[in-house]
């Protein structure tokens, strides 16, 4: 009887080890785009984002968003001066940010849904997701579980320049594939600018 129990244990252990090995192998084949979407971070080691001059910091009016497409023509975004310091914000007060206006949950349009009183974008017309623009676009209400993709900005003097995206824009496997670059967007000269994580 003892021999039978030992052989059952070994058989179960062997199956568990095989299952674990299969899981490790399967995980190694997960596309990096899925990892980027899950973590809300971009890794630009493969691709270089174009640069797009959006406008002048001195011309922005607090609480009035400016619409623009980036990095591709069909990817809508908004640029806004929040009036309060924000994560990854640029400008003297670090309060100028830009985000995709496609909800990461199911792609609902967030255009025209900026709420300056709470510095949030939403609610999404599909499932009411709302995002805090001062905290990297984290979802603060409803169904979305991923941050709103944030456009990485740089200041060249007074000019605001889009240089990358953190997060995966809804409907994309890669933010730079499936369309033409936004009008006036240009690849950076030389080796290009690569984005650090987070």
What are the main properties of this structure?
198 residues, four-stranded antiparallel sheet, Rieske Iron-sulfur Protein, alpha+beta, 2 helices
Describe this structure in words.
- This protein has 198 residues and is an alpha+beta fold.
- The protein has a single domain (9-27, 43-166), classed as Rieske [2Fe-2S] iron-sulphur domain (Rieske Iron-sulfur Protein, 3-layer Sandwich), CATH 2.102.10.
- 17% of the residues lie in helices and 23% in strands.
- The chain has 2 helices and 10 strands.
- It has helices at 2-27, 32-39; strands spanning 52-56, 66-69, 76-81, 96-100, 114-115, 120-121, 130-132, 138-141, 150-156, 159-166.
- Strands 1-10-9-4-3-2 form a 6-stranded antiparallel beta sheet, with no helix packed on it. Strands 5-6-7-8 form a 4-stranded antiparallel beta sheet, with no helix packed on it.
* Contiguous runs where pLDDT drops below 50 for at least 5 residues: 31-46, 190-198
- Which structural class do the helices and strands define? alpha+beta
- Radius of gyration, in angstroms, nearest whole number: 22 Å
Beta fraction: 15-25%
Question: Into how many domains do the coordinates divide?
Answer: 1
Residues in helix, % = 10-25%
| Shape verdict | globular
CATH homologous superfamily designation: Rieske [2Fe-2S] iron-sulphur domain
- CATH structural architecture: 3-layer Sandwich
CATH class: Mainly Beta
What are the SSEs and their pairings?
Layout (H helix, E strand, L loop, with lengths): L1 H26 L4 H8 L12 E5 L9 E4 L6 E6 L14 E5 L13 E2 L4 E2 L8 E3 L5 E4 L8 E7 L2 E8 L32
């Amino acid at each position: 009887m003892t021999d039978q129990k030992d052989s059952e244990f070994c058989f179960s252990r062997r199956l568990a080890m095989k299952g674990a090995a299969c899981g490790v192998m399967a995980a190694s084949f997960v596309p990096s785009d899925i990892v980027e979407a899950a973590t809300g971070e971009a890794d630009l080691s493969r691709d270089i984002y174009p640069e797009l001059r959006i406008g002048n910091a001195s011309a922005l009016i607090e609480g009035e968003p400016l619409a623009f497409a980036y990095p591709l023509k069909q990817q809508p975004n908004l640029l806004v001066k929040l009036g309060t310091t924000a994560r990854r914000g640029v400008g003297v007060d670090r309060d100028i940010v830009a985000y995709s206006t496609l909800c990461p949950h199911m792609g609902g349009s967030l255009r025209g849904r900026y709420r300056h009183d709470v510095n949030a974008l939403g609610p999404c017309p599909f499932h009411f997701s709302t995002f805090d623009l001062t905290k990297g676009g984290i979802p603060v209400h409803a169904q979305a579980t991923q941050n709103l993709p944030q456009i990485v900005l740089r200041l060249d003097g007074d000019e605001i320049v889009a240089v990358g995206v953190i997060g995966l824009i809804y409907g994309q496997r890669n933010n730079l594939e499936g369309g033409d670059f936004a009008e006036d967007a240009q690849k950076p000269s030389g080796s290009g600018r690569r984005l650090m994580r987070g």
